[in-house]
TrEMBL record:
Residue ranges occupied by any EAL domain in the UniProt entry: 690-945
Organism: Geobacillus kaustophilus
InterPro entries (UniProt xref): Biofilm_reg_signaling, EAL_dom, EAL_sf, FIST_C, FIST_domain_N, GGDEF_dom, Nucleotide_cyclase, PAS
Annotated ranges, domain PAC: 466-517
Domain GGDEF: 549-681
Protein name: Diguanylate cyclase domain protein
Start and end residues of each PAS domain: 394-464
NCBIfam families: GGDEF, sensory_box
Pfam families in UniProt: EAL, FIST, FIST_C, GGDEF, PAS_9
Signal peptide: none
Length: 946
């Protein structure tokens, strides 16, 4: 390959004369110049001289490098082939078809370089993106020419359009250096309005305002060439994309070469001189190490500005390179997509290059000041960017503190006029920013608080942060409580106003008041709770001591109120409770303090003027409570038990008075309720006795002092033994025999009833099983009494199952006796437990039948198997016609329901005969047999069997 170039028109003739003998028929000639006529003449002359050469000519307002007025490059290829193709202007309207045409006519498998020249600047990038890369060595260089430029080919002048030239050959080698030299400078601007390749607004202002402010009018006058030297940069997918500024429109919008989108951020950029120098040096170093037979150097208008002196020194170092100008240079190869470049230096070689083509090294030093200026611009830009980032962070922090703060935030000047308010201020207080800015802040404070708020304002201006509570009326008139903080605003060491921050504590204050209320008052009745009432009691007792007056303490316990909750629910129960409280309040004396301890228990404190006033007030309460209550169209009857203790007679401190009143109310409840009991010393003795008996009973279980007696239940007609009823007894070593009605209630109170009940079940079942085996009567049954507390325990059914399993007694031989009271207590649980026992096969006997007022109503719902007629109806059976009628009705009813009847407490032969006449099934009592010990029963049963 032979290569010649020159940079002035007068050198061209000398080139021909000096190298006439060595110039072979050239295959490629490229010419560039300012004057279209001169270029046209040279092209025509060259075509006559070498008619088979591929000639390309460019003429127009192009910046010529190195001070030359023309550039000519001539290449004679030895083994490579060239293809050239004229591209008509109309073909550029179809980039896909044009790319297909070039690929078919000019690109081959061994193409090393494809050059595309066109004045269609906007279409050229799209065309290059569509052109294929045929191998890893191939590079494509596109040169966009300015409007008004002219292209020439071997066939003559082209009116617009373009030319494509390809260099192909297996021996052809090329190397392309195409650096991206633009570096961002200054701040980033947001594109707030755009269309396709046009930017209308930056930061909501006309884009032209930014061009004029930052780049100046001279830049705007030199467009579009200056738009390549100082283009916009936008970051996309982690890399900078160059957007040359093409034109400025009259509406203030800016046309760019490249698509833009709203929200993108763009920055101005400039050609970084040090990068230009080092990129050119890299190209020179490569050419020095691997000498080229020919070098094309295509450069953009970006190098025609302040870097021109530096670029001219680079041109002088590349002696045998042909430099061709363009508005933009676009490069594409196998490794990178289409990109803009400040220049593209392409070296070509077919064989080992000769030494004469070596470049003169090193590159001359850059012009003075250029590198320093570039360094200054780069460093200043980075500093400005860091400063801007810090400023943005500060602004964002301030915005977060001010704009997004849920507290109200405002600022005032030195005279208290509002200078800013945050959105929370507007939302919470209801004022619009426009109507309150620059008005006096005191206008929005209640008149009663103006002097206090003014005092805090001036203290803050003196440099002291102020914190205080302040009520602020909203625009609608609602008063809100705020915790305010006033902070002085200091600028350049001078106080210019204050910041106010207000935290709305209205709900917090309400919550604190509610918590305080709940801590001392009952929410259902609004009465003082135990804590508050105890404080009142302590204070009233101190007052009574000082004035030597008497006072009464009463504990009020509603009788069987739990039944109300169980039948109608707790919500209705609370409503009924509130009605009762209102009734009690109506009869209270002046100065009385009523409180609620818990549940259905209340406490009352009132001063006494007369000795009998305490009893009268308490009886009035009992009468009021006993009046019928209506809820949900149903009538309820409730009674109250009241225990009284008088200060100072029954105690001189609150603890003694409450303890004694509690003893009195317990005595009232034991007496059946619906009554008043005044504390007396005997109650204390009884309480001590019960405490002692509780200890004795616990030891009785441990020492096996409890034992069982058995009373036969016989057939009234045949006198055959049907079953035995197990009766518990307690023989204390010093107290002797203790009656069941004394220790069973005590066992229920202490919870010992469950342990005792399990022992009774197991012992009774074991004993009857022994009698069955002894007599051969496997139908002999056992009746076991079950207390209400025991029956309601969640493990009761399991206790029954365990007793039957351990003794191997048939469930049908076990009958559990329950009183009507225990059955009707917690009726839903009772029915569920009795249903489980029925499925198990265990019999249920209603004990003391007829003693309760609701027996007949509930009997059909209870899965009972036996009725035990209460002894009270048996006592006068033979002498009292009414009792006889009642017993007859019970027996008839039982027979109608399929239930057997057992008469209890049969004491005389006459009673037994009458029961036989009334068709009663079974009986038990002393006339038949008294309760016996287990060993005595054995002989009795054996005797009856015989």
């Amino acid at each position: 390959m032979r290569w010649f170039c020159c940079r002035r028109a007068e050198e061209l003739d000398r080139l021909f004369s000096e190298h006439r003998s060595s110039l072979d028929e050239p295959q490629f000639i490229q010419i560039a110049g300012h004057d279209a006529g001169e270029v046209d003449k040279i092209v025509a002359d060259l075509v006559r001289r070498w008619p088979r050469a591929h000639v390309i000519g460019m003429a127009g307002p192009l910046p010529m490098a190195g001070g030359g007025n023309i550039t000519v490059g001539i290449a004679s290829m030895m083994s490579s082939t060239l293809s050239s193709l004229a591209l008509p202007a109309e073909e550029f309207d179809r980039p896909d078809g044009l790319a297909e045409l070039i690929a078919g006519e000019a690109i081959h498998r061994d193409t090393a370089l494809l050059l595309v020249f066109s004045d269609r600047r906007f279409v050229l990038p799209s065309l290059l993106r569509r052109l294929p890369i045929s191998n890893e060595r191939m590079a494509i260089i596109g040169c966009a020419l300015p409007e008004g430029s002219v292209l020439f080919s071997s066939d003559g002048r082209l009116e617009r359009g373009g030319i494509a030239v390809s260099f192909s050959g297996t021996a052809l080698r090329g190397h392309c250096v195409a650096p991206f030299l633009w570096e961002p400078v200054g701040l980033a601007f947001s594109i707030t309005k755009s269309r396709d390749q046009q930017i209308d607004e930056l930061n909501e202002q006309k884009a032209s305002l930014y061009l004029e402010r930052y780049l100046g009018k001279e830049f705007m006058d030199r467009l579009p060439l200056s738009g390549v030297e100082f283009p916009f940069l936008v970051e996309r997918n982690g890399r900078d994309v160059c957007l040359p500024i093409v034109a400025l429109h009259s509406d203030g919008s800016v046309a760019v070469r490249g698509h833009v989108h709203n929200g993108e951020k763009v920055r101005f950029s400039y050609v970084h001189a040090p990068s230009l120098y080092w990129s050119a040096r890299d190209a020179a170093m490569h050419a020095a190490k691997q000498p080229a037979e020919g070098m094309f150097f295509y450069y953009s208008a970006a190098l025609s500005g302040y870097t021109r002196p530096l670029f001219d020194s680079v041109v002088s170092a590349f002696g045998q390179a042909a430099f061709f100008p363009a508005v933009e240079v676009l490069v594409k190869d196998a490794h990178t997509a289409m990109r803009p470049a400040a220049f593209a230096a392409v070296s070509l070689t077919e064989t080992a290059a000769s030494a004469e083509n070596r470049l003169s090294l090193p590159l001359p030093a850059p012009p003075e000041g250029i590198m320093t200026l570039a360094q200054l611009m780069s460093t200043s830009s980075r500093d400005m960017e860091r400063l801007h980032v810090r400023l943005q962070m500060s602004e964002q922090r301030y915005k977060s503190l001010f704009e997004h703060n849920t507290d109200i935030v405002y600022s005032t000047d030195l005279h208290g006029r509002l200078t800013s308010v945050n959105p929370a201020f507007e939302q919470v207080l209801g004022y619009k920013k426009e109507e309150i800015l620059y008005t006096n802040s005191l206008k929005y404070i209640h008149p009663n608080d103006v002097s206090r708020a003014t005092r805090y304002f001036y203290r803050a201006l003196r440099g002291n942060v102020q914190t205080y509570h302040l009520e602020l009326p909203t625009k609608s008139g609602e008063r809100l409580l705020f915790q305010m903080k006033n902070i002085p605003i200091i600028v350049d060491g001078k106080k210019v106003g204050i910041y106010g921050i207000g935290h709305n504590i209205t709900e917090q204050k309400k919550a604190e008041e509610k918590i305080a209320y709940l801590a001392y008052y009952d929410p259902d009745t609004n009465l003082p709770n135990r804590t508050k009432w105890m404080e009142l009691l302590s204070g009233q007792l101190e007052k009574a001591k000082r004035k030597r007056r008497k006072a009464a303490v009463a504990l009020i316990d509603l009788d069987r109120f739990k039944w109300i909750n169980d039948s109608v629910g707790h919500y209705a129960g609370d409503d009924i409770l509130r009605q009762l409280v209102e009734r009690i309040r109506r009869v209270l004396p002046v100065g009385a303090e009523l409180g609620r301890f818990h549940g259905d228990k209340f406490c009352l404190l009132f001063p006494l003027k007369a000795e009998d006033e305490a009893a009268e007030t308490s009886l009035s309460i009992v009468r009021e409570v006993a009046k019928p209550l209506v809820y949900g169209e149903k009538e309820f009857f409730i009674t109250a038990s009241i225990g009284l203790a008088v200060f100072p007679d029954d105690g001189e401190d609150e603890h003694a008075l409450l303890r004694h009143a509690d003893m009195a109310v317990n005595m009232a409840k034991k007496g059946g309720g619906n009554r008043v009991e005044r504390y007396c010393a005997q109650m204390n003795e009884e309480a001590m006795h019960r405490m002692e008996m509780g200890g004795h009973l616990r030891r009785a279980i441990e020492e096996n002092e409890l034992f069982l007696c058995y009373q036969p239940i016989v057939d009234v007609h045949t006198r055959a033994v049907k079953a035995m009823e197990a009766l518990i007894r307690w023989r204390h070593p010093t107290l002797g025999l203790v009656r069941p009605d004394e220790f069973i209630p005590l066992a229920e109170e202490t919870g010992l009833i469950h342990e005792i009940g399990r022992w009774v079940l197991k012992t009774a079942c074991k004993q009857v099983k022994r009698w069955q085996e002894m007599t051969g009567n496997d139908q002999l049954a056992i009746f076991v009494n079950v207390s209400a507390v025991q029956f309601q325990h969640e493990r009761f059914v399991d206790d029954v199952k365990q007793a039957l399993r351990q003794t191997r007694l048939s469930p049908s031989c076990l009958h559990l006796e329950l009183t009507e009271h225990s059955m009707l207590r917690h009726l839903s649980n009772t029915l569920r437990t009795m249903d489980e026992l029925r499925k198990l096969g265990v019999g249920i006997a209603v004990d003391d039948f007829g003693s309760g007022y609701s027996s007949f109503h509930y009997l059909k719902r209870l899965p009972a198997t036996i009725l035990k007629i209460d002894r009270a109806f048996i006592e006068q059976l033979h002498a009292n016609a009414s009792d006889e009628a009642i017993v007859r009705a019970m027996i008839t009813m039982g027979r109608g329901l399929g239930l057997e009847t057992i008469a209890e407490g049969v004491e005389t032969p006459e009673q037994l005969d009458r029961l036989r006449d009334l068709q009663c099934t079974y009986a038990q009592g002393y006339v038949i047999c008294p309760p016996l010990l287990a060993e005595e029963v054995t002989s009795y049963v054996t005797e009856k069997q015989t």
